[in-house]
């Protein structure tokens, strides 16, 4: 059964955040809130985490995983980014955007798109997510908590606990955080290509 952690949305309790971070370090798969919707997260190099996320969401090997970063220092270690793209991404973060870029050697090979060698990265604008990333001290391997054949992601922590009780190890609940996934912008060719229109304003990339 999944452990259930309830935290304040504006002032998350450090002890609770620490307990969730410890569970991730020890290999746990967690459901956690972001500034767009709930996500599944595990430690960056966890093969078990990758396979469990693929199983829950019924994903193939062409799916772009997202590396949730606390700041640009982390993001810059994971992807190749030139000056023009850097300025565009910097202006839109933190926020509800995922950017697809060529991965560096710091990214485990199994996370990269098999042909393009790209990966998704983002910097969230959410107090609880930022607190978790700060405590964890490293990027979090993530994917939107959108179940197969469902139109919208799950939005309530208690419902996630109820439905995924035997598929995830922990649920971090800070209240409802919306149903719209991030806007996804592919910068792998240098010019922005909007792959998915979501919570982030797309006008700056059009």
TrEMBL record:
Q: EC annotation?
A: 2.7.7.87
Top-level EC class = transferase
Transferase as a keyword of this entry, yes or no, is: yes
Gene3D superfamilies listed in its UniProt record: DHBP synthase (3.90.870.10)
Q: Which NCBIfam families match?
A: L-threonylcarbamoyladenylate synthase
Q: What Pfam families does this protein's entry cite?
A: Sua5_yciO_yrdC
Q: Name one GO molecular function term.
A: L-threonylcarbamoyladenylate synthase
Keyword line: Nucleotidyltransferase, Transferase
Q: Which organism is it from?
A: Streptomyces exfoliatus (Streptomyces hydrogenans)
Name of the protein in question:
L-threonylcarbamoyladenylate synthase
Q: Where is the YrdC-like domain?
A: 14-200
